Amino acid sequence: LDTVSPTDVGLKEENADDDRGYGLSTINPFNRVARWAQPITYLDIHECESFTMCIFCFPTSAVIPLHDHPGMAVFSKLLYGSLHVKAYDWVEPPQIVRNIGPGHSQVRLAKLVVDKVLTA
């Protein structure tokens, strides 16, 4: 992963449309407000029985919800720009906070293990 670059996967390092969707809310150019959010895009690189390799393209100020990858090992590589990452691990031994009923997972406690900005 250390040697992979944006051009290796067909990406340009800078996107001219990166700021589309932003406009001036007042005369002051420092008060930029999003008019609409650009979508997060997904590029499928390779998929087989053993693994999937893909690229997620996050526009400026994109946010994704907290989520889990059960039964998976995830390797990430930031190709360009910067990204604020927060990662959590389950508290062990499991501390069940509450059971919300049949058909639902139990709510468990997690601890913050990464909270930093990564830069390519």
Automatic annotation (TrEMBL):
Heme listed as a keyword: no
Catalytic activity: L-cysteine + O2 = 3-sulfino-L-alanine + H(+)
Keywords attached to this entry: Iron, Metal-binding, Oxidoreductase
GO BP: detection of hypoxia
CDD domains: cupin_ADO (cd20289)
Cofactor: Fe(2+)
A Pfam match: PCO_ADO
GO MF assignments: cysteine dioxygenase activity; metal ion binding
InterPro entries to which the protein is assigned, alphabetical: PCO/ADO (IPR012864), RmlC-like_jellyroll (IPR014710), RmlC_Cupin_sf (IPR011051)
Enzyme Commission identifier(s): 1.13.11.20
Family in the record: Belongs to the cysteine dioxygenase family.
Name of the protein: cysteine dioxygenase
